[in-house]
Write a structure and sequence with these properties.
Shape: elongated
Structural class: mainly alpha
Largest sheet: 3 strands, antiparallel
Radius of gyration: 25 Å
Helix content: 40-55%
Length: 105
């Protein structure tokens, strides 16, 4: 598996091939486009020269973002401990702790 920095996560890479560390080649028209650590120039090239492909790429990216948002959300403390509000869970923990203090030998 590639290290995180070496992975190409943007959908734009489905339409470009990396030529070297500073250039990418458009798989549609063959034009070399400069990039420096981000995909801004690649996206601009698509938007200016291949509007239909750009729009499809944007739509897929947005759909993936929406789908990912459902599973990325962190479980709340209350959900982890079987329901109730997080305030209720916090109070229960405090009451338990205070009870331990007063009933310890």
């Amino acid at each position: 598996m590639l290290p995180m920095a070496d992975r190409k996560r943007s959908h734009v890479w489905n339409l470009f091939s990396s030529e070297n560390s500073n250039n990418a080649v458009c798989n549609i028209c063959g034009k070399t486009v400069r990039y420096c650590g981000n995909t801004t120039n690649l996206v601009k090239h698509l938007r200016s020269n291949h509007r239909a492909e750009h729009d499809v790429m944007q739509q897929r990216s947005e759909e993936e973002e929406k789908a990912g948002a459902a599973w990325v959300r962190q479980t709340s403390l209350a959900e982890s401990f079987g329901g109730g509000s997080s305030i209720q869970v916090h109070r229960e923990c405090n009451v338990s702790y205070i009870g331990d203090i007063y009933h310890s030998p």
